[in-house]
Amino acid sequence: MLQRKAIFPEESERHKLYDEHGYSAAIQSGDLLFVSGQVGSRLDGSPEPDFKKQVLLAFKNLTNVLKAAGCELNDIVDVTTFHTDPENQFEAIMEVKKEVFQTLPYPNWTALGVNWLAGFDFEIKSHRENTHQGMTNLYR
User: Fold this and answer.
1) At what angle do helices 86-100 and 51-68 cross, to 10 degrees?
2) Buried b (16+ CB within 10 A) or exposed e, 98-131
3) pTM for this prediction
4) What is the DSSP letter of 73?
5) Fewer beta carbons below 10 Å: N end or C end of the chain?
6) Do 115 and 84 contact (CB within 8 A), yes or no?
7) What is the per-residue pLDDT across 22-71, written as a single tens digit (0 to 9) for each?
């Protein structure tokens, strides 16, 4: 049986939603890292009201989780994003995406329109495979 390890960002970068809703920021299982959906949550768990800033904060939260696992954004192989109003949000999301993912090859990306994200308007979920020396003893 594979051992699973929970991963959380440093306390100063960890928002309250993990504890309030009882989930791990990420789970390492073997050579795979499964990152929970990251939203534009402030440290107190509240959503950032400005949409583009919410998307930027979701990517920052994702980066913090990856950093805790010894990874970075360029290590991601698969991304799924969830949007409450994809038609009107697409332009802002693409602007942020271009800022965040600047190096080829880009990860796979699936975007889904949804009705509800617990008060948020954007969520990003990702997976990565351990193909280098990262992800060693950085887990809590």
Assistant:
1) 40
2) eebbeeeeeeeeeeeeeeebeebbbbbbbbbebe
3) 0.88
4) G
5) N
6) yes
7) 999 999 998 899 999 999 999 999 999 999 999 999 999 999 999 999 99
